[in-house]
Every structure is written in C-alpha cells, then in structure tokens.
Amino acid sequence: MSDKLMIGGREFQSRFILGSGKFSLELIKAVIEHGEAEMVTLALRRANAGGEENILDYIPNNITLLPNTSGARNAEEAVRIARLSRELGCGEFVKVEVMSDSKYLLPDNYETTKATEILAKEGFVVMPYMYPDLYAARSLVDAGAAAVMPLGSPIGSNKGLSTKDFIQILVDEIDLPIIVDAGLGRPSQACEAMEMGVDAIMCNTAVATAGNVALMAKAFKQSIEAGRNAYLAGLGRVLEFEGEASSPLTGFLEG
Amino acid sequence: MSDKLMIGGREFQSRFILGSGKFSLELIKAVIEHGEAEMVTLALRRANAGGEENILDYIPNNITLLPNTSGARNAEEAVRIARLSRELGCGEFVKVEVMSDSKYLLPDNYETTKATEILAKEGFVVMPYMYPDLYAARSLVDAGAAAVMPLGSPIGSNKGLSTKDFIQILVDEIDLPIIVDAGLGRPSQACEAMEMGVDAIMCNTAVATAGNVALMAKAFKQSIEAGRNAYLAGLGRVLEFEGEASSPLTGFLEG
Amino acid sequence: MSDKLMIGGREFQSRFILGSGKFSLELIKAVIEHGEAEMVTLALRRANAGGEENILDYIPNNITLLPNTSGARNAEEAVRIARLSRELGCGEFVKVEVMSDSKYLLPDNYETTKATEILAKEGFVVMPYMYPDLYAARSLVDAGAAAVMPLGSPIGSNKGLSTKDFIQILVDEIDLPIIVDAGLGRPSQACEAMEMGVDAIMCNTAVATAGNVALMAKAFKQSIEAGRNAYLAGLGRVLEFEGEASSPLTGFLEG
Amino acid sequence: MSDKLMIGGREFQSRFILGSGKFSLELIKAVIEHGEAEMVTLALRRANAGGEENILDYIPNNITLLPNTSGARNAEEAVRIARLSRELGCGEFVKVEVMSDSKYLLPDNYETTKATEILAKEGFVVMPYMYPDLYAARSLVDAGAAAVMPLGSPIGSNKGLSTKDFIQILVDEIDLPIIVDAGLGRPSQACEAMEMGVDAIMCNTAVATAGNVALMAKAFKQSIEAGRNAYLAGLGRVLEFEGEASSPLTGFLEG
C-alpha cells in the first residue's frame, strides 16, 4: 500500500518523528533504528561547528533533520536560529518553536506565526509547534507552513491528548499534515491520536525516560502504525446496549 | 527475545486472541493471517458435525481452538457444552462463559467458578471469562483456571477499559495470565491494557465491525505488541511541571 | 417537594451519609451539622461500653446510627459484630462490610451476601457494602438487603467513579436504594453519581482529610443536592456539532 | 463569610452567570430566581428598542446585565455592538464574543483582544469569551479586561472541561477572575471547575435544554457553591494504596 506522508515535497514511510533532545549521543542511533524514524529533531546547540562531539555524526545520512528553534522567545530569535541552522548545513526543514513562557513551555502562536511567514518566504519547509487553536492553525496555513504540530498536552507532562477535542477540529478542518507533538507519554496515546486521523507523531520525553530506550522507540513505532491502520480500516462504532444475544443454548443443545 | 505467553503448557508468540463470533466464514482466514493470531474462539454452534459449512474448515491447523460455552446460563450448561466440544474434536482448551443476564451479558462469577472447577478436574485447560473481582479471581485460581479473562467493559460496547483500576489489581495480585476480553473498541485501548501488564487481549466486535476487517486485525496485533514492548521497556513517569528549561538561547547565540 | 429517601421503613431528607471513621470526636458534631447528615456510620470499637470517651456522646439523638462491621473477614465475624452492636444499643441498622483482603480493602461479595441473609432474618436493616457486580446485587436483594452500597473506587483512593458503568447498571436494574460508598474524593464526583440516579452518597476520607472539615462536609451536602436536582430535572443531552448559529449580526445592525 | 466575587468594581454573592440565549422570555424570571443569578447575559437583538416584547422587561432590576457581542465576526463589529448596547441603556458591562468560524463557534482570541482593548479604553467593563491560551489571557490582561471567560469545551457540546489542564494554568497564572463559559453540560462539571479554583461559571444550554429548567438552574447554583466551598476548604489528596488498615477485629472482639 502506498500510504505515505508528504511534507515539503518529501515522502516519508514513517509517521514517527523522533525528538533527540534528551538522549545521550550514544543512544540516538539505536533509537532511530528501533523506532524506524526518518525525521529527527535537532537543537542547534547540539550541532556546533566546533571541535567537540557533534550530534550530526550520530545520525544516519538518510534521516531528514528537523532543526528546531528551541530557546527562541520571539519571532525574531526563531528566525535567526533557523537561518544559522541552514548555514550550518542542517537543511531546509525547520521546526519553529517560540516560547516566551518559561514555566509551562507553551508555544506562543502569535510569534510562531510571524516567524513561520518570514521563514516560509525564505524557502524553508516550516513545521510550527503550536497550541491547537483553529484560528492560529488557519493563520499558519496562510503563512506558508508545511505542517502544523499541535501539542497533545504540556511538554514533558506525559499526560496524553489533553487537547483531544481541539486536535480533532484541526484534523477535520486544516488541509496540512497534523503532527501531534509534546505530552504523549505512552504508545497507547500515540495510537489514539493516529486513530483520530492525525498524520504523524513526534515524541521525545516518553522515549528518553523509558527503562529501555530503544525498545520504547519500537513500541511507539508499532503503536503509530497500529493507529494509522485503524484509521484507514475505519473504526467500528461505540454501541449502546442492545442485547446482542448469542443464539440460545437450547437451540444448540437440541439442534 | 523469548517473551512468550504460556497457557495450559502451550507456548504462544502472539498475545492477540481472536473472537470469531461475528465474522463471515470467508473472512476468518484473512483476519487470522493479518492479526497473526494463534488462538481463535469458537462457538460450538458453528462447529456442527453436520453436513453444512463448518468453521473448522476455515481455521488453519496450527491455530489453537478456544471453544467457548456461549449460551450457557449456569455451570451445568457450561460443563455440558465443554464436554460436547471435546467430543467434537475441538481440543482441551475451553473458554468458560456463563451469563444468566441476557441484557448486559455480564459474566456470572459464581457459576463460572463452579464450572471451572469441574472442567479443570476433567483435564480441560479452562480460561474463564469473568467480571474483574479480586476475590472471584482468587477463587478461579483455586478452582484450577489456566488464565483469567476479565472484561474491559460490557461486551460489544467498545468502551475500552472501564474496569481499569480493578484489572490492575488482578495484574498485580493474580499469578495467572490475565487476558482482557470484551469491550475493547480500538487498538489504542488494547495497547493501554498491555502497557499495564496484561498478558493478552481478546477481541471480536471491534475487528468484526471495522470497515476493513483484515487491516483492523493487523492494527490490533501491532498495538498489542506495542503495548507489550512498552511494558517491558518500562514506562517513564507522568511528571508534574518542573520548568525543564531548554538551555537559554543567548548562551547559544553568543557561544 | 417530597423527594425523600426511604431505607428500612425510615424516611430521610438527607442523601448524605457520613462516615465517622477518621474524625476526632470533637469534630463530628460540627461535621454532622454542616453536612446536614441524618445517618452516620460507627465502627463498634468506637462505641465501647467502657468508661472512656464514647462516640455516641458526640452524635445528636435525631441521627440514625449506622454501625458497620469493619474488621470482619468473613460472614461469621460480621454477624457477631452486628449482634454486639445491637446489644450495645446502636439500633437495627447495620452496614455489613466483609473484607478478607487487607491490601485493597475490597468487599467480599460472597461473604457479604451470607452475612446479609442471616442478619436480615434477624430483623436488622442491612445495608451491605459491595463490589458493584450485578449478580451480587441481585443476590443481596434476595438475601433481604435494605439498600446496596457499591464502591465508587478503592477505599481511600479519592479516585471517584471508577466503577461508573457498572453502578449505572445497578441504578437501572436493582429495585433498592443504591448508595455509592468509598472512593469519592471531591464533591463533583458525588454530584456526578447523583446525576446518574444514585440514591445517596456515603463519604468519609474526603471530608476527613480536607483542610476545613466542616466546610467540606457542607460542600458534599450541596453537591449531593445539586446532583439529585439535576437528576430530577432531567439532564439535557450531549450534542454533536450542529452549527447552532446565532442570528447574523448584519440582520441586527441593519434591522 | 465574605467570599465575594468582584468584577468591574461591583460585588457579587453569586458565582453563577446565566446565559439567557435559549429561553423563552416567560422562563427567564423563574430561572434567575431558582439559580439565584446576579448577572445575566443578553444578546442585543433581544433588547430591541421597538414595540415588541423586550427581554429587559423580564429581568429584575437588581440583576447586572451582561450584553454580549454575539454575531460579531471581527473586532470592529464587536465594538459597534457594544456601543449600541450602551446607548440602549444596557450598562457598562459587556461580554466580548468574536467568532469568525461559524461551524465550531470558537472564539477568535486575536480579534477578541483588539475589541477588548478598544472597549476598555472607552470605560466598558469587558469580559472576553476566549479560547484558553495562556498568552492570549496575558494579552487580555494587558488590554484591560475585567475578567476572562475561557471555554470549557465547544459551545453547546455539554462535554464539560475538555480544556481542563489549560484552565488550571489560567487559574494559577492570571490575576483576574476566571469564568468558565460554554460546554458545561452538567452541574458536576461546574462543580469540578469551581474545585480547581475557577471564580465563576456561565451556563446556558445545559439549563435551557433540561426537562425542568428552573430546577436545573437551582442544581447549577448548588453545585457551584459546593465547588467553591470545596476549593476554600482545601481538597484532600488522591492517595495511592497504602493498606490503611482498620484496627483488627480480634482486638475489638477480645478487648
């Protein structure tokens, strides 16, 4: 079957985007392999041009890098980080993250949209991290985003789909890939999001804090495929009680 | 890895038990293949010795049959059906179901335990369908059950793990395979049960009512494996807010 | 309006039964007053005939005492405690609790039913604490119970209505007062149970562990009345999106 | 106790704001009385200066009117409606609603903030209906809002607190009254919001669609007071299992 995800003109088999922020460099390769991820985020500060260890040495060549603008507190800072990233050879993809709030690390939709507009015009494939507000998502479409990445619940909370009803609205109304990012703590939650018609999942904390990191990456991969297949298969309905009687025993015993 | 499920001295790779009650016979083979099920339930009335179509002709030889006592309203009827099943060549495994209530189709733990005791003494591998009550589960252990099959939520309701807190108690306290049976409507719910440490899942309605039955069987298989792997990997914890600050942008830009 | 609760031939205005197990004696009176409770449980060990402080001195005369059989591990022990209670002058009402499990403190439905049958024949007004199993509830009806007291979630857990789907079944099928007991940690959970058609609520831990115990008792009282009124008023339905458009602005501005 | 709600310099005993949009005029008075509401919303189109029936004739004098800008699709329209409302004698209070989306009727935070800023400068007491986004709430504070009214779930859905985690953030971070508006379908949901520390509740559909409208208004009033009292009393904690053993029976029986 050719059920592929298209972002920025590139084709992906995998619908699991791996956040690399909390791994030791030694683990990244194994996690990518077990998770069969094809796109991996990258905080620029880990891709220094300097002499030290460089995360890029640990990521296979066929992986699409998704540098993020982690640390940006407004649109201007996000734009600067994105440009630096491209200069450093990290490619055209960028995950725009703007958080002026340092307690809850919630995305600032307004600044995010401004940065998205600027970067899209400069030829970036912009994937903004956002708070799932329908109006903001529409503005991001207008601004030239290549996908939208609504949060499932506050980052690092592992709470799952706190924003479920509003992500469903984005799935139904926004004509871009919807990628749930942040807050998913268990594979079952990733599966649930995919069952709703979400296009892909990004995950970091839940994998990074597992006892066996590589095996958890595999679990997420499997659950994401399961959810996608369930969505494609068409879920049955939740039924009310209807006394769906098995045929009576007597009929059988006497039959 | 040798993570196998043992029931009645038999070893299973698959943790997905397929209920066959609502399929057309033509579909069963495809569903078993896509779901990679190794155990399939069977209502005796579909395994008639007579001249008509026989479900057994559609189930591959390497599959363990799990005849159920569907239709039994008390222990005595369940015992009669189980014996008939063995005489008809359906093997030693039996899923004991006793439901005197015809509206909610809830299992009657008391009658179920009586039937389990009788059948276990006759050499059956008894897997009782039960309401997840800790005391009843202990009685079933004493009665010789080979596994216990607590319901997730009322049969056919697709509501998922309504009984979650009590199934967790069974997982923690009962030293037999715990198989969640009934009520799971989506792969994410099966995954969630497996993440809790449940040993296997039985599913019928959710697969049978899907748009694409074989693909949904595959989705359940994948989600069950995902949940099992997550359990083995060790889930990370749900965290409270802790201001897990990314390193400040300024440090990076000036660095 | 004459919406009264009848138990054992006695009429109650209040649908809030107060568990007294975790209070200092000094607080009980205030809690009863603020909660406007008319029935209060009593562990026999706090109603000693001896010279020390006696809880009965702190409970107003118009309150119906509900001695419980706390500590009983089987039917026989429960029966002994109940009889002692009556001899000590605590009246005809008794809450039968039998828990052989000391970890989760779950009620043992089988032993509870046996004790209920014996005590009902001896003229007690028996209110058994139970695990919400439809079959067990029916057995308790047959055994002569005056009400059934299903647990909402494991005692002391404050988790609310973990057993919601099964309590609804009791409400719909059992022709006795249904009193949710154990596990309710917040007034909103008591309200939710009452909205479902439950007849009364028993609560102890949530009140006893509040910062202001008397005010929390009042909060439970109010929420229970709110839930009862909502049930009587008839809840509106949860609607799907239907574009319930306000009349257009233009019409107004030009009108 | 002097636990009062202050909005725009006015003091309220009641924390229940009644939406009047879906009532027949005959019912409003009874609903206000049973709900003990002190503030009632008003769509301008129902307050015509013309000769027909005027909703203002049905609302007691001591009630604070809260005209809304229902129908506004952008800031400019909201401002026009608010000014008209003041000219018609509906007072200084205004609930700013701006919805350009006509399917889900979600508030447009950006346009809402613009309107809030203009109207606050003109001396209105502005209570904006909003999507619960922390950044938007901060902008509304800066714009001069007198309270913020985040939605609980999509309007008319009766789904309760879909946005719970994000409303909690507003409660913790925003130094204005937080009023949950829209989506609450049952008193228990209003109670739950109040337990979290929300300052008031606005409700319309759930009351208007009840079987007995006045009794449901009373149920909401009671549940809101219950939730407030629980918040003030200090909720106990949800505990893990801890084997909180009752004192052993033997001790009692032998004592």
Q: What spatial order of strands do you see in the largest sheet of chain A? A: 5-4-3-10-9
The separation of the N and C termini of chain A measures 45 Å
The number of helices of chain A is 9
Domain count of chain A: 1
Overall pLDDT metric of chain A:
87
Q: Which band does the percent of strand residues of chain A land in? A: 5-15%
Pair of chains with the largest interface and how many residues each contributes: A-B, 73 and 73 residues
Briefly note the CATH topology name of chain A.
Answer: TIM Barrel
| Number of extended strands of chain A | 10
Task: Write down the secondary-structure element order of chain A.
Answer: EEEHEEHEHEHEHEHEHHH
The main sheet of chain A comes to: 5 strands, parallel
Please name the CATH architecture of chain A: Alpha-Beta Barrel
- Which regions of chain A have little confidence, pLDDT < 50, spanning 5+ residues? 238-255
Shape of chain A: globular
Q: In terms of quaternary structure, what is this? A: homotetramer
Rg of chain A, please?
Answer: 20 Å
What class would the helix/strand composition of chain A place it in? alpha/beta
> Please, what is the CATH homologous superfamily of chain A?
Aldolase class I
Would you write up a description of this structure?
Four copies of one chain form a homotetramer. Chain A has 255 residues and is an alpha/beta fold. Chain A has one domain: TIM Barrel (Alpha-Beta Barrel), CATH 3.20.20. Chain A is built from nine helices and ten strands. In chain A, strands 5-4-3-10-9 form a five-stranded parallel β-sheet. In chain A, strand 3, helix 1 and strand 4 form a beta-alpha-beta unit. In chain A, helix 1 packs parallel to helix 8. The longest helix of chain A has 21 residues. Chain A is globular and about 45 Å long. The C terminus of chain A is likely disordered. Chains A and B meet through helix 2, helix 6, helix 7, helix 8 and helix 9 of A and helix 2, helix 6, helix 7, helix 8 and helix 9 of B.
